[in-house]
Amino acid sequence: MSQSVRVSDELIEEAKRQAKLHHRSPPQQIDHWAAIGRVMEVALAYPAQEKVARTVAAKQLDKALALFGTKKGRKMAQEVINKSKNHRLK
User: Fold this and answer.
1) Tell me: the pLDDT tens digits for 60-77?
2) Which of 22, 28, 29, 77 could pair with 64 as two cysteines, CB 3.0-4.6 Å apart?
3) Is 84 within 8 Å of 51 (Cβ atoms)?
4) pTM score over 0.70
């Protein structure tokens, strides 16, 4: 069942741009981003999320997520996750 939600104009415009690149509709693109967010939230423990947000890793993760669905993107995302886990263990 679909429901309407309010989102920022900026999010809609970026979803339109990305959707066109990936042959999706804007709602499908936002669903895709939401799915990635759910996975990443579970994958990164809270302390690691804080560190990622404060470091260059956040930019690396953005690049990896832009390539999501590609072998290179998955490898980059895994490297960022592993770095975050290693920082948390220290």
Assistant:
1) 767 777 776 778 877 877
2) 77
3) yes
4) no
Q: Domain segments of the chain: what residues?
A: 8-43, 45-90
Helix and strand element counts for the chain (H, E): 5, 0
% of residues, the chain, pLDDT over 90? 30
Where does the pLDDT of residue 12 fall: very low under 50, low under 70, confident under 90, or very high at 90 and above?
A: very high
CB 35 within 8 A of CB 75: no
